[in-house]
């Protein structure tokens, strides 16, 4: 297959960026999107040009490192699919494809399509855990948890931390990311005790880092590669306001 | 001559005295401690934040030590532990099916073909139970029965159900538990986390590990970090095969740099080739995705009985199918250990019975499981794996069998460590997949998440303080010293050298070529002829690498090609040692299958009288030196490993 690409190029965080045109030819339909970019990069390198920087690591949809905005959508056209699991068979022959970084105020572009997502780690650091030291834990089966509850907690815990929810949101809100962790831990007996403090601290951190407010558009849920539901945001809001004076 | 042997040095594994089941307690009873008030004076560097590194960093920080962590991803949560699907083993005997610490120990030792230390393996089984408690307390959502009790499944190579799992995302959930524990310590100021920092050298002084040289991958800045101890938790180097189940950035550079500074490498050629991966489909493919081994609980593996079968899989009648694992290994069948299952697949594929467009795969069929348990049950058990399979291949595996083939997956070899997880360089520790320790010549499924966690949560926090207590604070490491200065100079000139070659081939080109050589000659089966040819081919490739590599000449700033080139440069050296290691071991054991040493029916023939040792390799700057650590079996009797 052949494609025309319009790819965001930006030298560094300070530089202005722009879309640059490229063409790729003879790409097999079973090639993944990132492997298509690998091939383009090999040509650029051999021509002495600077290859396109983009993020990736596991290439199996679980590390959350890859993050391309393709034709105006976080992770491209398929639902519940991260960029690395997208294949060229999902595009039309000779299609023009726009490739941009995930954009949000708190995610500055480092170079080309690579962004800085440290703020997501900071949100977790502010309370996204159970405060249990190594060695303290009681026998695992001492607390029974019904399997439905575990499944619900799992739905939230499956977040891969890619930031698509933030990029998809017109407000640049990290509400889905934050709520997923709050909800995961809230649903389990082990996480309940610290719950109030956790909600307060994580929401405060999220706001402090410059993420926008949630206005319930639901775009995050649509673009989330793990299909995490916005109902977790409702839970976060409810618990947050329960606590506030 | 590819290596020399040093018989004068005998490695001290520091196995504690006593009966097998008392050794770890005896160690803990006698270990020297550091008082709580003094711990903050000690600084420990943990390179790698996968399960082993994150759990070690969190646990050490909880104890009160100052910790710095390093990883190359942009967040500790992305380490490749995240990709483990199937599960984690632990001896809880929740199923009342006859499990015990001894049985788990024995299964692991036997699975590894009696090429691991009894004491280490026993400790792994002994500490396993508590890991599940810890993970549950952190909020890891392990699968549960309807009753609310934890659920188990079984994995290859064992006859009990001791595998705990969290859907097909066990590694992700365990890693998030460890990552969150680590981030809690970051928040408390006990850990400094350096992400996007790659370790490029180890600094030693007077035979002690004193620190590391790292490169900030965003700015290109090179910096020195001095500390009281260095822990390498940098994972496996199976990516050396280019096509593998590992992440793109996985590498062997950290341990190789340590090796060049004097740390011994142990059995580097022992690589697990996983039987259930997606087959290669094209030339530009960058990785082979693993389909969890748990699929073998319900899937049946077969190839057509006839070489020229051209019917679709679903149209091939039972009598024309060869369920070769069930045929050859009736008691374990589709759950035969990985090395055996992979080799059996390769044997069928090489004999011309492979399926798929490139004839490089075998079928994994769920037809019978679906008719027995109903599609609903299979969806519940493996739904996400079937979805993943469809996403990648476009094939619906509820209707047609999956196609799978073997791929490089796990490094049993790594840095040599003693019982305390210390390398032979005092102050340098290696944990998780980066070390050689508990898995012998073949790792059992779901044992390595366990090993990474047990190393990090339970062992290192007990053993490393012992070293700190002996050292005291008299001899402070200083990053302004001559040793740091020289190490930094060397790193800089190596990077500049790579940029200056300015040839006409990319780093990936060399990596792909190397992968082909290794997979062919130092993969599922090896021979003296193949290995010597591989060594020559690797030397040639290395020569052309330094003449024809082309990468952008950017030192200050993001340069992925420079990162790749540095890793490939190290791979070119590691691979040679792998071949030498495989050549030196004139027996077959576990994943190491030497064609010259097999039984008449094609099974591995171990040679206990001559090769019951761990091969430790010392870097001499020239020809590698082999040092042997003999294995003593005091509590078990090595038997022939039969899964028939
Ligand atoms: C696809 C797949 C599935 C698996 N499934 C299972 C399973 O079901 N059950 C099981 O028990 N095991 C499984 N394994 C094996 C298991 O996941 C690994 O052995 C284990 O997670 C390794 O953990 P680790 O902490 O040693 O390394 P990793 O998690 O790989 O972490 C390595 C860390 O080192 C860092 N690093 C590496 N090099 C450098 C450097 N030079 N400088 C700085 N940082 C560096 C990385 O950034 C990362 O943080 C699987 C493995 C794979 C690949």
TrEMBL record, chain A:
Cofactors required: [2Fe-2S] cluster; [3Fe-4S] cluster
Task: Name the InterPro entries on file.
Answer: 2Fe-2S_ferredoxin-like_sf, 2Fe2S_fd_BS, 4Fe4S_Fe-S-bd, Beta-grasp_dom_sf, Helical_ferredxn, SDH/FRD_Iron-Sulfur, Succ_DH/fum_Rdtase_N
Domain 4Fe-4S ferredoxin-type residue range list: 150-179
Show the stretches that span the lipid bilayer. none
Q: Name one GO molecular function term.
A: 2 iron, 2 sulfur cluster binding
Q: Which domain of life is it from?
A: Bacteria
- What biological process terms from GO does the record include? aerobic respiration; respiratory electron transport chain
PROSITE patterns tied to this protein: 2FE2S_FER_1, 4FE4S_FER_2
An example of a Pfam family matching this protein is Fer4_8
Looking up NCBIfam families in the UniProt record yields:
PRK07570.1
Stated family: Belongs to the succinate dehydrogenase/fumarate reductase iron-sulfur protein family.
What's the protein here called?
Succinate dehydrogenase / fumarate reductase iron-sulfur subunit
Q: Which organism is it from?
A: Cyclobacterium lianum
From TrEMBL, chain B:
Q: Which GO terms describe its biological process?
A: anaerobic respiration
Q: EC?
A: 1.3.5.1
**CC per GO annotation:** plasma membrane
Q: Supply the alphabetized keyword list.
A: Cell membrane, Electron transport, FAD, Flavoprotein, Membrane, Oxidoreductase, Transport
Name a GO molecular-function annotation. Answer: flavin adenine dinucleotide binding
According to its UniProt record, which cofactors does this protein need?
FAD
Report domain FAD-dependent oxidoreductase 2 FAD-binding positions.
Answer: 44-449
Matching entries from InterPro entries are given as: FAD-dep_OxRdtase_2_FAD-bd, FAD/NAD-bd_sf, Fum_R/Succ_DH_flav-like_C_sf, Fum_Rdtase/Succ_DH_flav-like_C, SdhA/FrdA/AprA, Succ_DH/Fum_Rdt_flav_su, Succ_DH/fumarate_Rdtase_cat_sf
Domain Fumarate reductase/succinate dehydrogenase flavoprotein-like C-terminal stretches: 511-643
Q: How does it sit in the membrane?
A: Peripheral membrane protein
Against Pfam families, the record matches this protein to: FAD_binding_2 (PF00890), Succ_DH_flav_C (PF02910)
Q: Which reaction does it catalyse?
A: a quinone + succinate = fumarate + a quinol
| Catalytic site positions | 338
- NCBIfam families per the UniProt record, alphabetical: PRK07573.1, sdhA_Bsu
Please give the family membership noted in the entry: Belongs to the FAD-dependent oxidoreductase 2 family. FRD/SDH subfamily.
> What is this protein's name?
succinate dehydrogenase
Source organism per entry reads Cyclobacterium lianum
